TrEMBL record:
PANTHER family: POLYNUCLEOTIDYL TRANSFERASE, RIBONUCLEASE H-LIKE SUPERFAMILY PROTEIN. Gene3D superfamilies: YqgF/RNase H-like domain. SUPFAM superfamilies: Ribonuclease H-like (SSF53098). It is found in: Cytoplasm. Could be a nuclease involved in processing of the 5'-end of pre-16S rRNA. This is Putative pre-16S rRNA nuclease. It comes from Fontimonas thermophila. Its EC number is 3.1.-.-. It is an enzyme of class 3 (hydrolase).
Length: 176
């Protein structure tokens, strides 16, 4: 009696299976959720912070951005996994400026992060003025809670994720 071997893995699949450990935040968004026709038009945005980095994903066909995940600052393994899974065309990094548009102490760190992203991942990196993105994220979270769209308590990383979404949405609105 011969035993049949299990079927070989699907070698045509271009994205990792959901079971692979990817930091996907609480949004439930995964690479396979997007239409394959838009695969070359995916963008990831980063809201660089002192402790965490918020990440959002969007595409130029629908011109919409969605919050994706937060990672600890300096967690290049998680960032590399997300970029490998989503295969974006470019990366967008929010540039933290003060209300007058002047650079602050964190601006230089965000610039270094953007430069390192480009060097490590070999992708184009675009910087965008992120003034008021955290305020817009706070407004969105407050409205989502009051309307019932968000029933759980707001977590620390939620603001970072939504700020990244705002940054990417602004970029898509102009460059999409």
């Amino acid at each position: 009696m011969s035993r049949s071997s299990p079927a070989p893995p699907d070698t045509h699949k271009t994205t990792p299976p959901r079971s692979q450990s990817l930091p996907t935040g609480k949004t439930g968004v995964a690479p396979e959720d997007l239409d394959p026709e838009t695969a070359g038009m995916i963008y990831l945005a980063f809201d660089y912070g002192e402790k965490r980095i918020g990440i959002a994903v969007g595409d130029s066909v629908t011109r919409t951005a969605r919050g994706l995940a937060t990672v600890a600052r300096g967690d290049w393994v998680a960032i590399t996994r997300l970029v490998s899974a989503w295969r974006p065309r470019a990366l967008i990094v929010g540039l933290p400026l003060d209300e007058e548009g002047a650079e602050q102490s964190i601006t230089a760190a965000a610039r270094r992060f953007a430069a390192e992203l480009g060097e490590r991942l070999h992708l184009p990196v675009h910087l965008i003025d992120e003034r008021y993105s955290s305020r817009a994220a706070d407004d969105w979270l407050r409205e989502a809670r009051s309307s019932g769209r968000m029933t759980r308590r707001v977590r620390k990383g939620d603001r970072d994720i939504q700020a990244a979404r705002v940054i990417l949405q602004q970029w898509l609105d102009v460059h999409g």
